Amino acid sequence: xxxxxxxxxxxxxxxxxxxxxxxxxxxxxxxxxxxxxxxxxxxxxxxxxxxxxxxxxxxxxxxxxxxxxxxxxxxxxxxxxxxxxxxxxxxxxxxxxxxxxxxxxxxxxxxxxxxxxxxxxxxxxxxxxxxxxxxxxxxxxxxxxxxxxxxxxxxxxxxxxxxxxxxxxxxxxxxxxxxxxxxxxxxxxxxxxxxxxxxxxxxxxxxxxxxxxxxxxxxxxxxxxxxxxxxxxxxxxxxxxxxxxxxxxxxxxxxxxxxxxxxxxxxxxxxxxxxxxxxxxxxxxxxxxxxxxxxxxxxxxxxxxxxxxxxxxxxxxxxxxxxxxxxxxxxxxxxxxxxxxxxxxxxxxxxxxxxxxxxxxxxxxxxxxxxxxxxxxxxxxxxxxxxxxxxxxxxxxxxxxxxxxxxxxxxxxxxxxxxxxxxxxxxxxxxxxxxxxxxxxxxxxxxxxxxxxxxxxxxxxxxxxxxxxxxxxxxxxxxxxxxxxxxxxxxxxxxxxxxxxxxxxxxx
Amino acid sequence: xxxxxxxxxxxxxxxxxxxxxxxxxxxxxxxxxxxxxxxxxxxxxxxxxxxxxxxxxxxxxxxxxxxxxxxxxxxxxxxxxxxxxxxxxxxxxxxxxxxxxxxxxxxxxxxxxxxxxxxxxxxxxxxxxxxxxxxxxxxxxxxxxxxxxxxxxxxxxxxxxxxxxx
Lengths: 508, 166
What we know:
The complex is a heterodimer.
Chain A: H1 2-14, H2 18-36, H3 42-53, H4 58-83, H5 92-140, H6 145-163, H7 168-182, E1 185-186, E2 193-194, H8 200-203, H9 208-226, H10 244-249, H11 251-266, H12 272-286, H13 298-322, H14 328-339, H15 348-351, H16 355-376, H17 379-385, H18 389-408, H19 411-429, H20 435-458, H21 463-467, H22 469-484, H23 487-507
Antiparallel strand pairs in A: 1-2
Helix pairs in contact in A: 1-16, 2-4, 2-16, 3-4, 3-9, 3-14, 3-18, 4-5, 4-13, 4-14, 4-16, 5-11, 5-13, 5-16, 6-7, 6-20, 6-22, 7-20, 9-18, 9-19, 11-12, 11-13, 12-13, 13-14, 18-19
Chain B: H1 2-25, H2 42-64, H3 83-103, H4 109-125, H5 132-160
């Protein structure tokens, strides 16, 4: 512990240079703006920023990406409160209570609550990252091919289930399509080019970043252009400085939402959006003033904003320790780490012993950034929100195009971006979630190699896949998730429980 | 949305079958004495089968709801968004494809970007113009914006990030 604290102190001192602080300042600000602008999500922001920073030194680039990520998830609250349009999907729950507060003339107070919730949520998440990640990395050293295989399946199934709760099959379809797309190109054991049909571009595989820029950038441009224009901007009238009373009164909600948000972040592919929704639902269930939810509840707003920001460090935990992304923006971060020569995974504490604490330090700086901007940046952000989409969207698309191209300087990546944009647009119009697709793209290679390596180790026997202790837990979790998605199973379970409860009551 | 599921289900079934067939056709490297559990087609084949199954579930569910009558419209069916939304999306797709798949790579990047941004803003903002002087403004501003964006992106990527632009 003392050793970790010393490492953290050293990492923080290392960032106390003018250059690093300058990067924190502009990247967090840009993140807040990206998050606040409807149509620009955290995933897109981090993806575009990766293409812009890939020639920088590794430390600077990763610092910028993390500030962008934290800033964007916070920034989404601004448009949710002022326009009733979540700036990122993660702030959808924020709009439920934030906008009613703004309509009551309390926009400033709502923004203050959002700021304090986001800051405290990130801090809870950071605490979890600093304590859990080193332990999890050590635990993950036990993982072999069998466990990584199940982890990949678990990720896609659980992400598919939780991001499409009313119709999990759509989430699973998205996830398995992602896995299938990841199969394109040379595979890792015999270097056979799958689904390449003689094309050297296809043999190289589908790049994660162009695909993400398409699925989150181009398709978002189309979705924004489809919606009718929104022009309601509320000016903040009251003060935006967070009130101590709001924080002390709802400390239980803050802690609960922080823990729920972090947990949602850790689960593969289930990120900030679910962190906010799950915290909001839990806060509502536990609240004494339940009737206020949806009509301008301070508690609801606090829960949503704490939950989504706590998921950010949470989502980074599996990125660093298992190389499995906790959310869509974290998937981009994972790709960026590989680009910059950091190899996340179980060996991280051995190969890069100081890296986890460096990330903790970066997150702390980004949190400081959102706190400062949360207090200072009220009016300027209103002007940014007033930029008409007809002017913003073509600029975004130019950045999508050039960003896809810049990584490898090949036109093929631009076509990948276009294809994923169109497919992503159609899928999103039909209510398929994008996060499992992204997760599938990232996990495809792990799944492929782990299954085949495992089979070689056991000489074709499937038994160890089911009997090794960690594998057992993972496949049981997958089975339960799948079974619970059938309404017949849920009903039978409910009947069984009520019967047992009735039997217990008569017995006692 | 159920009708969409019916069609999507069919598409997924077709995709699953195609993937399965292609995976079976992948080489097994028997002549190289390769361990049979490492053949390249194993995982894609399994994924193809899963997608086939999921597509079949989606298809059957929609079919049971009576959605094979594709030509009929349910009385309460919501058309795929309002007319103007669809028009805007189609125009956006046309402009974006023309730029990224057509102009980029054939024209110098700065020129392609200038044309795209100017055309996009003018085409979308022109109908909003109130009178003649407003219309002139609605052409002038986009041209200035396009010039600025084109210059800024070209400069930043070429001079600072050292990317050789198409």
